[in-house]
Every structure is written in structure tokens, then in C-alpha cells.
Amino acid sequence: MNLKSLLAGLFLSFVAISAWYGVIAGPAGAGLMAKQVCSLIHVSGFTAERAMDTYIRPLLGPAVHVMSLRTDPVRRQVVVTALGFRQSTAVHHPGYGCIQLHDRSVADIEQLLPPRPPMAAEPWEPDPQHRRQYFDVTALHGAADAVFSAPGTLALLMVHQGHVVIERYAEGINGTTPLPGWSMAKTVTALAAGMLARRQFLGADEVALFKPWEEDERIHISLDQLLRMTSGINILENTTGADANSTMLFKTGDSSTYAINRGLDDTPGEVFAYTSGSTMLAARLISDRLGGHPETLGFLRRELFESLGMNSTYMEPDETGQFIGSSFIMSSAHDWARLGLMLLNDGEDSGTRYVDESWIEYMTTPTPQATHRPYGAGVWLIDPDHPIQHWMHKLPRGTYYASGLQTNQLWVMPEQELIVVRLGATNDFFKSGVAEFLVAVLAAQMDPEIQSST
Questions:
Q1: What are the backbone angles phi and psi of residue 417, rounded to the nearest 5°?
Q2: The domain 179-444 belongs to what CATH superfamily?
Q3: Residues 6+ apart with CB under 8 A from 65
Q4: Could you tell me the pTM of the whole model?
């Protein structure tokens, strides 16, 4: 009797877990797999096998065993089925990256977003002479070797005073290969908000941001609180696939409207809670001020990416045309470094000012509520005196960085005039070797006058 009860309990548990996964978590996992594999095949140039082995299996773990993947190179589509009945489809749309389909068809997407030709990548060659002049070359190469010994490292690039000092890439990848940046998109969205602020289209302290918020406490949420992750909006973000963030990104075709309709979890301005939903709302606000989703995609491409020479960069939209400013960006190491140089130069590059200098200061001003890990507005910060984050202690004050899932990062060190880009698929930052590389780079930097005299 006890054995029968045990077996019956195990069976019911299995059924319950399968039902929970199939109905709630499975669709999010299928959506993630479809979207990312589509982007990796059609934007990055990976095979499906490489996409799965490098990015998806390390991220989803055992969940991939209950999913099946089907690719259609002619239609440029990827279809993923979870437990045999929950399906997610992503399609590559030229000039935009990959888009998940929910309620709309490929024809709808083509009508909404006319296909655009890809931009031609601009060359950016390494400068060995500059490297020899300013760095201990042997130490620099040794530090790069150590980073590439970490699993999942695909691209490493360092720029000093505008010169490419060192770059390394995995097989089949180069400086112009677009790769997933995940939450590095949040930094781009914060910069886009600054571009609108410079045009006086938007202000950081604005409230009453969306009409549905005018009838309740959400009326008090400001753009500043969205960018600083203190909005109080109830869009939980974790790794279960059942959280609101996963629904927003992978289970709905209108991600920003889903975010707008969420209620409050905390009083606006009181609690730091990192969630892609806050940045997604900032992205929607930007689109509203620019006249709609397609117009905003054109603005980003024309006024930011093309202008900076970031010709291998795509802010991928949902099926409504809204750019997913929290999470879906495909960009190359060279392009991230170009963005980093603009940040390093306080919002200016080659005579063009993108955001006011005060906006960079705003982005890099600490959010008081972010006590566990220093955060600004769209970027993470370094506090060498932080009592908990001991890995920061050897890094210079003023350093800040864009950071995305699987240790995709752009580091800016203003005083040292250094930019470091690391792209790949390493789930644990502390196993990526990035922190050690940054410390080694600082140690390898030398005074050119001392170099020339030895």
C-alpha cells in the first residue's frame, strides 16, 4: 500500500510538473530558444548546432531535452516545440534581426517594417605600434590568453585612446560579427533617452508617462525611476520561465503594452529592483515621443548606429515594431567599442554630440537604493570601497559598464582612456576571467616615456 501510494505520488508530481512546465514555463523557454537560435543563425552566421551548443544548452540546461527545434533556411524561420504541443516561431526580417511571431504573420511584419538592406561594416584595424608604446605586450597577450581559456568566450577587444590594442575571436567570428548582448541593450536605451532629452522631447523627471497610469499610483513613476530600476513596477525577473519578465519577452507579441498594464510591487522611488520591464517601459516612452515604433527604429539606425559607424548592430523589435530596449540587441565587438568611445568622450564622437555631457554624468551617478551592487541609470558602476563586492576593489573609481546575460559586457575606464568589450556565453561572471583581465590590463599599461627609454 505504501509503495502504491509512493508511486502514485511520484506519478502525480510528474504530471503536475509537466503540466506546469508545458503551460507556464515551457512557452517561455521555447520562445527564448526560437528567438536566439534565429538571431544566431541569420544575424551571427552560426549553424543551429553551434547556436545550441554555445548559447542555448548552457543557458536552459535540462529543459532543452523536452524541446524540439526545426529550422527553415528558405523562409528564414526557426520553430521550437515544447513537450510536443507548445510552439514558438521566430522569423528573420532583413535589416531588423529576428522577430517572434505570436498574433501576426510574416506578411504583417513586412507591411509594418519594410525590409532594409544591411549596413556595410567599417574596418578598424589593430595598431601594434600604439600597443608597444603604451603596454607591456607580453603581459597583455597573457591576459587575453587567460580570458580565452574560459568556456564560452567568443570575442575580446580592447581600445586605448581610440586605437585597437588587442583583439581575439573564436573560430568563424571577427570584429564585425553581431552577437547577442542581452541587457547591454539597456545602456543603448538610456542613451536613446538622453538623445531625446537633448532634443527636449523628454525629461528624466517626467511623470504620468502612460494614459493607463493616470488613474492610480503609477502616475508618480518617472523616467528617472524607470532607468534607475526604482519604478516599483511588478515585473518579476528570475530564471524560472514563469516570471512576468519571461512572459513579457517571450510569451506576448506586444511586450511594452504588457509592461504598461502591470501594477505596482513597491512605492515608486523607494526600492531598487532590477527588471527588464522598467527599461522596456522607457523604450516604449521613447517610441511614443518619436511618433511610433517603425519611426523609432529608423531614428536609432540613422541617428545613433549609422552615425557612430555601428553598422553591425540591430535593436530587434517585437511583432508590433517596438524595439526591445531591455534585452534584444545584436552587435559586434567593434560596434560596442565605438559606442564606448562616445561614452568615454562624454557623449560626443568625431564632432557629433549625441547626448549632453550632463546626461553621461547622470547615467553614471549612483542610484542610492542600489546598495548591494552599484547601479546608475542604464549602466553598472564600480565602487572600489564596496563592502560586499570585493572583486571591485582593484578597479579604478569612475569605471562603469554595460552588462548582459552570459557575461556580455562593455567596460569604460575614463581616466585610463580604456574600452574593453567581452562577448560570449559564460553564465558565471566569476568564471569568465573578465575581472582578472581588467586588473591585468591596468598592470600592463605603461608610461610611453618610460617605454621609449628602455
A1: 55, 40
A2: DD-peptidase/beta-lactamase superfamily (3.40.710.10)
A3: none
A4: 0.93
